[in-house]
Amino acid sequence: MNTPALLAVDDALGQLLTLAERAPLDAVETLGLADAEGRVLAGDVVAIVDAPAWSNSAMDGYAFNLVDAIGFPLPVSQTVFAGQAGEPLAPGTCARIFTGAPIPQGANCVQMQENCTVLEDGRIAVQGTLREGANIRQQGSETAVGQLLLGKGTVLSPIALGVLACQGIYRVSVVRSLKVALLSTGNELVGEGEVPAPGQIHDSNRVVLQSLLQRMGCDVIDLGKVNDELALIRAALERAGNADLIISSGGVSVGDADCIGSLLREAGEVLMWKLAIKPGKPFTFAHFNGVPFIGLPGNPGSSLVTFLMLARPYILRRMGRTRVEQMRLPVVCGFDWPRAGRRQEYLRVSIEQGRAVLQPNQSSGTLLSATWADGLLEVPVGTTFKAGDSLDFIPFASLLA
Ligand SMILES: Nc1nc2c(c(=O)[nH]1)N[C@H]1C(S)=C(S)[C@@H](COP(=O)(O)OP(=O)(O)OC[C@H]3O[C@@H](n4cnc5c(N)ncnc54)[C@H](O)[C@@H]3O)O[C@H]1N2
Ligand code: MOO
Question: Is residue 370 helix, strand or coil?
Answer without folding.
Answer: helix
